[in-house]
Amino acid sequence: MGKAIFILSGAGLSAESGLKTFRAEDGLWEEHRVEDVATPEAFARDPALVQRFYNERRAGVAAAQPNAAHEALARLQRDHGAPVHLVTQNIDDLLERGGARDVIHMHGEVNSALCARCGHRWEAPAVMVVGEVCVACGAPTARPDIVWFGEIPYHMEAIGAALEESDLFVAIGTSGLVYPAAGFRQMAQQHGIATLEINLAASGARFDDVREGAASRLVPDWVEEIIGG
Fold it and tell me: Is 109 helix (H, G, I), strand (E, B) or coil?
């Protein structure tokens, strides 16, 4: 039996599928800082603007296709002889569409709606509007099911448990320098878990092994090393 693997993925995993990585560019959307359209305060101040931002993200995800890196991770999960925990900071569904299962979305999902009143979740319509009604309680309090700046990421307890039982921590397409994600690498190192970074450019964080280049090339190569032909 192989060793359990914990994989943390970020924007770099989906960039080659055409999804914009705001952090890698100027951090702006239509001259608005991303922080100004991705906070609870922004939603309270201008919900129409925030809904439009996520409507555009939803449309972008719908038009994108999984790339070779998504498909390779699904293959690893399917064919590896031990658990492969896929934790992503991405709000797209490209891992699932690439064949992965049980993906943990720590920052939420753009295709999900959340009722701010009762906490119910459901599949978001392609276009959400101000005052979108909750399908469960009927309140006009629906919002994108996204962890905004200043909010606590989802599934932190499950993520910690998965990491503790793993033998290898791999960060793909993410700097791993910003908390809480940075804490995962540190936790792995404290538990004596080997660490690997696969990134377009090295983040500068301390990993046991660093591989620089496009995820669509490096991830399939790495998966091939793990499970063979």
Answer: strand
Contact partners, residue 201, CB within 8 Å, separation at least 6: 212
**pLDDT mean across residues, the chain:** 93
What percentage of the chain carries pLDDT values higher than 70? Answer: 95
Query: Is there a binding annotation on residue 39?
Result: no
Indicate whether 176 pLDDT > 90: no
Lowest mean pLDDT across 24-38, 77-91, 190-204, 211-225: 24-38
Domain locations along the chain: 1-19+66-107+152-229, 21-63+110-146
Domain 21-63+110-146, CATH: 3.30.1600.10
97 assigned to a ligand binding site: no
Render pLDDT for 104-127 as a digit per residue (tens, 0 to 9).
999 999 999 999 999 999 999 999
Q: Which of 32, 107, 155, 191 is catalytic?
A: 107
Model confidence, pTM: 0.94
Q: What is the pLDDT of residue 23?
A: 64
> Are 219 and 74 a contacting pair, CB within 8 Å?
no
* 107 in active site: yes
Q: Flag whether 19 is marked binding.
A: yes
CATH class of the domain at 1-19+66-107+152-229? alpha beta
Identify the three-state secondary structure at position 172: strand
Q: How far apart are CA 70 and CA 73, in angstroms?
A: 5
